[in-house]
Amino acid sequence: MQERLKQKALELLENGTADRILGWKIGEFFYDLTPAVFKTRQEIQEEFVYSPFAGANLSKYLIAESRKGGKVAVFLKPCDSYSFTQLLKEHRIWRENVYVVGVQCGGMCDMEKLRAKGCEGVLSVGEDGENIVVETLYGTNVFPRAELLEDRCITCKSKKVVTFDELIGEQGTELESDRFSQVAQLEAMTSQERFAFWQKELSRCIRCNACRNVCPACSCEKCVFDNPGSGVRNKAAADSFEESLFHIIRAFHVTGRCTDCGECSRVCPQNIPLHLLNRKMIKDMNELYGTYQAGADPDTKPPLTDFTLDDEEPSIVHTRGGQ
Amino acid sequence: MSVNNEFQPTIVAFCCNWCSYAGADLSGTNRLQYPANVKIIRIPCSCRLNPMFILRAFQRGADGVILCGCHPGDCHYTTGNYYARRRMTLLFSMLDYLGIERDRTRVEWVSAAEGAKFAATMNDFAATIHKLGPNRRLEDLRCRKD
């Protein structure tokens, strides 16, 4: 797969379709792939990487990149293409300056799960069909991909690349997944248990803002948390209230725009399951206002900018979930 | 706030300018009684209520927050309260999900002619919050007065 992407990148650069390529390169570690812009043939040959750790969603970078003039080619996995379409819908990306190469994705891998397998001295990781091939100092290990998948990929919602100019691999379809099962479990708890659960999770927050910075939906020109006039300072939370405030407001601001790509939880250095907040909102909207998937198409109205005359009253909260 | 060591809840009521604020006025001119610890904040439309306002109110010591607006269909701006209704449903659902007591927040539609309903709603809400006790799950310790 990496070679096919590399060839495609070189081809696009050479036939003049794009003057730069947005892809991934190795960050600090082999499993830490960083989004990068490649401008020359040499850079692509030496640095371009696509591996089962290319989880980073490139769509957000296109907001800035598409405004720089010239044309940028980008590789988008199915998840990323949902975010891309959502950003197009919000008129954030200049579509005419972007050439999208859709990439089919078999799911991304979690380094923690590889570590749990006892893999040490890893030199490189490659893919071979449904297997992940790990080269280590002590020889080659092969694992089934399913055993290493990130949690968000186990409950993958769709393999369909929504928006693309060209596709590498087969077009996939939307999948049936039980991605709301964890939310349902939480809903069934008592309010005291839920409070304890979230306090335990959110109290680890160090307000590094990684979740906000990586989130394609969180791309306001000026964030409310960057505005000192709002009374919310962008600093380490001093109090349990501030942790809750940040996450409640953030989840609410992306309601109806969150495509459930799961980047927030992937980048959280404290492993807070932030996607559970966004999923709760998606689940509620699906149940109350009809199924809606942000980024699935460019035209449907999101639930919060729409209404019907016989919507449920807010008191419905009393009749749903555990006590 | 405590008088004779008895818990006196602080309640913030966001009232829309066109219906509920006038309704509150009417309950006053009709000499209907509702608790003095209900603090009314006038907003142009129930749709003006930013979720941040509710969280801020809890941070600064509110024990309950209630939003009053025109009945659906009667909004001065035609559709404002329909949007508010969806937003508040989702926000309350999220607060509930985070384990905040679901009785602490409420939405009630009160028209300008419903002075009696306004007083009754406030009495009932104040009693509910009184029973629930002080807000501890969504408070800011730095803002605590006692």
* CATH topology title of chain B: Rossmann fold
Read across the widest sheet of chain B, the strand sequence of neighbours is: 4-3-5-6
Query: How many strands of chain B?
Result: 6
Query: What's the pLDDT, averaged over the residues of chain A?
Result: 88
Highlighted features:
heterodimer, A: 323 residues, alpha/beta, 2 domains, 5-stranded mixed beta sheet, 3-stranded antiparallel beta sheet, 13 helices, 14% strand, globular, B: 146 residues, Rossmann fold, 4-stranded parallel beta sheet, two-stranded antiparallel sheet, 4 helices, 18% strand
Q: Could you write a compact summary of the structure shown?
A:
The complex is a heterodimer of chains A (323) and B (146). Chain A has 323 residues and is an alpha/beta fold. Helix content of chain A is 34%, strand content 14%.
Describe the structure.
Chain A is of the alpha/beta class. Chain A folds into two domains: 2-108 and 149-168, no CATH class; 181-319, no CATH class. Chain A has 13 helices and eight strands. In chain A, the strands form two sheets. Chain A has a five-stranded mixed β-sheet with strand order 2-1-3-4-8. In chain A, strands 5-6-7 form a three-stranded antiparallel β-sheet. Chain B has a single domain (8-136), classed as Rossmann fold. Chain B contains four helices and six strands. Chain B has a four-stranded parallel β-sheet, with helices on both faces. A two-stranded antiparallel ribbon of chain B has the order 1-2. The mean pLDDT of chain B is 91. The chains are: A alpha/beta (323), B alpha/beta (146). Chain A binds chain B through residues 186-187, 191-199, 224, 230-232, 238-242, 244-245, 248-249, 251-252, 255, 277, 280-281, 284-285, 288-289, 303-305, 307-309, 311-318, 320-321, and chain B through 51-52, 55-56, 58-59, 72-73, 79, 82-83, 85-102, 105-107, 137-142.
